[in-house]
Amino acid sequence: MASELKTFSQGGIHVDDRKYSHESPIEKLPASKLLVIPTSQHIGAPAKVVVAKDQAVKIGQIIAEKAGFISANIVSPASGVVKAIEARMSPTGFKQECIVIENDMKDEYFEAVTDIAPSPEAIEKYDPASAVKQVEKAGIVGMGGAAFPTSVKLSPPPDTKIDTIILNGVECEPYLTADARIMIEDADKIAAGLALIMKIFSKNGPVKGYIGIEANKPDSIQKMSEAAAKYKDIQVVSLALKYPQGGEKQLINAITGRSVPSGKLPGSVGCVVQNVATAAAIFDAAVNNKPLIERVVTVTGLGVKTPKNLLVRFGVMFTELIDYCGGITEDAAMLICGGPMMGKALQTSEVPVTKAVSGILVLNHSEANLYEEAPCIRCGRCVDVCPMGLQPGMINKVIEAGEYEKLEELAIMDCIECGSCNYICAGHERLVQKIKIGKIKLQEILKARKEKEAREKAKAETKAAPQDKPGESK
């Protein structure tokens, strides 16, 4: 492991990490009697329900199939009976189609699973050709928060040559410690998962593996270094503390020095990035036929009595996790799904844990800092800290003016919504929230433009087509 602390080259901020739950070992939350499973727990099209009310199901049984290339299967996290298929509130803050399962508490699996221990020998024996299919069947998505279908990441276009696999163990969001605990408690499985991913891509040439971890997690770095030492071409990279180091493009730049061009994906520079928890899930699915039915969730903040890291079945309500942690304090003021920088504030804790939920944050009044917005003073600090080299203040002015066409030239779609500009803004403007609106407006404009061009092209082709002469038969 290199002694020099690496970091990305452009922008970024330094925040108080507040890792209150770092020393809390992962505890398994008791199974719930009723589980609410949204059919959209990933980027892309919602999965299509393939079960019916009153149907019996078992753990790992597909209850909603992926509906398109960018989609993911949903499997049952418990054995029991489907009680309802209806709209329920989800961690997105909106109602979504959900499958409600009454857990029979028997934990019966739909297919047999094994318990092969992670090791170089296990990876050496394993045929990578079936790995992607196993990952797809298991319903695995990126567990760092973005929830991109993992089978798609493992299947780049044929002309894309991947030579570098990076595991994201940065966990740069303040408060969250789920990944740190997984690296401490399950390092061997993570390293084996990385080795398997490398094997999947090695058919086109040598592949190197890296595990990026910020230096505020020395115990995670030690455990992962010990596990990685068992494999060839895997290196743990200690990173300087800077937010948003966990962003794909920022992490690639910090570790390899490569820069992903605007509008391009990591594959364009030969890289694939996976979260450490995702790597562990890949090993379980590919080697042991274990479906993705649970994840580690950090419950933390000064608004909760006892911060913890919990292993939770999908479909369990936030309320149950908070109650297990002693409940909320008298001065609890805000509930957030995720971290304080990129998370979403919720109005209710009656929403279920999904694949994308890495943390439940309860802030008290002193932490919430609910400032009133003030006018922009053109200090330029948002430009200085933007890790994508954008002009958040200028973008905000264009959005406020309703001149959405100009957002394209300001590269608004490159924004990763990290919240660095919000954090640094002297006027406490809600820049990211407005940028999200601007993205939607620009997408509407681009869609309308594309449809217009298609109509005009079709019209031109019709005019150019040869016409039948009078008297000729058709």
Could you describe the 3D structure shown?
With 474 residues, the protein is α/β, with parallel strands linked by helices. Among the domains are: 117-290, 3-Layer(aba) Sandwich (Rossmann fold); 294-368, Roll (Ubiquitin-like (UB roll)); 381-458. Helices cover 29% and strands 19% of the residues. It has 14 helices and 17 strands. The protein has helices at 120-125, 131-138, 150-153, 178-185, 187-201, 218-228, 248-256, 276-288, 318-324, 365-368, 381-385, 392-400, 420-424, 431-464; strands at 26-28, 34-38, 48-49, 56-57, 62-65, 74-75, 80-89, 95-103, 164-168, 208-214, 234-239, 271-275, 294-300, 308-313, 332-337, 344-346, 359-364. The strands form 4 sheets. Strands 1-14-13-17-15-16 form a 6-stranded mixed beta sheet. The chain has a 4-stranded antiparallel beta sheet with strand order 2-8-7-4, with no helix packed on it. A hairpin with an 8-residue loop joins strand 5 (62-65) and strand 6. Helix 2 (131-138) crosses helix 8 (276-288), helix 5 (187-201) crosses helix 6 (218-228) and helix 5 (187-201) packs across helix 8 (276-288). The model has no long low-confidence stretch (mean pLDDT 94).
